[in-house]
Design a protein that fits this description.
Length: 261
């Protein structure tokens, strides 16, 4: 748990300095997850807490996933298991415009930032993976009429371990477009949000992987006088070469319910 305090510490400037905040809780479910070397489709319930805020020098973002798997999971001997998992990511971005005191954006370019991040996790399965990744690079913010669209260009240093040891991965890269675009369909408001992670090979038998989680969500809280607070919809998970394992692919929708506060 101490490692996850790093996530909060990385993205916690003084509260008085905050210019905006956004926090939400998501509940997701699907029965079509795939795990490497397991022929079974696996059901999972996921509870996600995510938070973002802006302050005088830039912005911060973090999320934590709590996941419970069904007994379709298997250990290396084929025995069933129902592991729980905690996984989180945190990123801090310093705005070049804010640091220099001069706007650096023009036209389609809104700003450029310097970004650093950390990914941490633990899973109580027999394989006992403990991901730990450090990232650093630049973020390009693009001008859009509503919402946001940005692209991270990051170095990727994987120091993860498991019950078999620490593979000693080599350095790699991560390219991540992310977006959140609000829209209206008649009287119904919604959001199209998500990201795509493209992560290069890290050696130790891994290949390039692609993870995408676009969400289409609708504001159902408006019908109960809670406009902009309660959303329902679909998240589609596409993961090619999951964890960098060649041929371990995942593609399925998840039911989504989200509360904003």
């Amino acid at each position: 748990m101490k490692r996850f305090l790093l996530l909060a510490a990385l993205v916690s400037p003084p509260a008085a300095a905050l210019e905006w905040t956004a926090t939400e809780v998501e509940v997701l479910h699907s029965s079509r997850f795939r795990e490497p070397f397991n022929p079974n489709a696996v059901s999972k319930h996921i509870l996600t807490l995510q938070h973002a805020h802006g302050y005088s020098l830039g912005r911060n973002f973090m999320f934590v996933d709590l996941t419970r798997s069904g007994n379709q999971e298997r250990d290396a001997l084929g025995n069933p298991e129902s592991p729980s998992e905690i996984y989180g990511e945190a990123y801090t971005t310093l705005s070049l415009s804010r640091l220099s005191g001069k706007p650096v954006g023009a036209g389609l370019l809104r700003d450029i930032g310097f970004t650093a991040g950390i990914n941490l996790g633990a899973k109580d399965s027999a394989f006992n993976p403990e991901p730990r990744v450090y990232l650093a690079g630049i973020t390009v913010d693009f001008a859009v009429p509503r919402g946001f669209f940005n692209v991270d260009l990051l170095g990727y240093w994987d120091h993860g371990c498991n019950s078999g040891g620490c593979p000693g991965y080599r350095s790699s890269y991560q390219l991540t477009p992310s977006w959140s675009i609000p829209f209206s369909l008649g009287r119904v408001d919604g959001e199209f949000t998500g990201f795509v992670d493209i992560i290069g090979s890290r050696g130790a038998g891994t290949v390039r992987q692609v993870l995408s989680q676009p969400q289409l969500r609708f504001d159902i809280g408006a019908a109960f006088g809670q406009k902009g607070q309660l959303y329902a919809g679909i998240e589609y998970q596409y993961w090619r070469n999951k964890f960098g394992i060649d041929g371990a692919n995942e593609s399925h929708p998840q039911l989504l319910l989200a509360w904003k506060f």
